[in-house]
Amino acid sequence: METIKNYLETMFANMPNTPEVKKAKDELLQMMEDKYNELTAQGISENEAVGTVISEFGNLDELAEDLGLEKEVNEANTRQENVNRRFVSMDEVKRYLSYRTKSAVFISVGVMLCIISVIFPILGGISTMISPGPSVGLMFLSIAIAVGLFIVNGVLSRDWSYIRREPCQIDMSTAEYVKNRLHSFRPVNAILLSIGVLLCAFCWVPVAATGSAYMTVILFLMIGFGVLLIIYSSMTSKGMERILRLNDSTTISGTYSDGAQVEYTSKTAEVIMSVYWPTITCIYLCVSFLTFAWYITWIIWPIAAILHKIFSTAWAKEV
Questions:
Q1: Would you give the distance in Å from CA 192 to the centre of its chain?
Q2: CA gap 311, 195 in Å, rounded
Q3: CA–CA distances in Å: residue 34 to residues 8, 57, 178, 183
């Protein structure tokens, strides 16, 4: 029966996501189940029964009139002709998610190296263990490694440009796999984001507590590692969410990603919310470095969280 249900999902994947279509889909499933049970009761093997059911009920164009879906089937066929969606297999999705994990490591480590590169000149000025000349060299070496990581990531991303630029589609089993993986990652994501935000918010504490120049190094290390955790966790989860957004939200296949993310009323709102937290992180760091008021700039985070809730509620699409 699982084979029949999967086949039915494939049949209706590009159909409009309307109550009429859902009702017809449920009716057809019941008809297929009744036929399957009838055949197996006659002693026919499961494989033969599945083959018979699919051959009898497996053509939606032929069943459209009986199901009252002539208009919807024509609409789906027209949509498929106008927008030829590329099917992304389970294996492709697994390889894409593996790439996203590597990409998250490359980008997050690269950004961290850029942030902490300034600690070498600082150490060169306050420590006798490293002279100013080599310390500047280490700073540029750190930045060069970061740039190298960005370049490698850019090269690897070319293989997956179609995920971003072309209309794509996944089946229900692939969507379930990604949703389960995203669900498993959410507790880890919450922990990494929390630690990252706390490190950035309270990086000023060591400097304020001791006033030591060495604590400035600790400050940049805390910021660097905090930003690394934020970027890594965000990029990893966003990769899975991107896959769950591939299907056309107006079709039955669009329901496979239910619960993956909030849908917004406009493209502008979607773009704003997608860059919201990286922008807040940038604002926090800029304000903190310009004012050196680390003891109070942490207030940006709770204010940002309240605004995020307001915006996400106000711009969420009603369903």
A1: 16
A2: 24
A3: 14, 12, 32, 35
| 196: nearest Cα among 112, 129, 316, 271 | 112
DSSP states of 54-72 as a string?
Answer: HHHH--HHHHHHHHT-HHH
Q: Are the C-beta atoms of 241 and 260 separated by less than 8 Å?
A: yes
- The SS3 of residue 260 is coil
pLDDT tens-digit map of 273-290: 777 877 787 787 778 777
Strand partners, 169: 87
Give the distance from CA 83 to its chain's centroid: 24
CA-closest candidate to residue 50, choices 67, 37, 41: 37
Closest CA to 112 of 157, 156, 153, 143: 143
Model pLDDT for residues 201-260, shown as the tens digit of each residue: 788 788 777 767 778 888 889 988 988 998 899 889 889 988 988 887 777 777 776 544
pLDDT > 80? residue 78: no
Alpha-helical runs (H) found in the chain: 2-12, 19-41, 46-57, 60-67, 70-82, 90-116, 119-126, 132-157, 161-165, 172-201, 205-210, 214-244, 267-274, 276-291, 294-297, 300-314
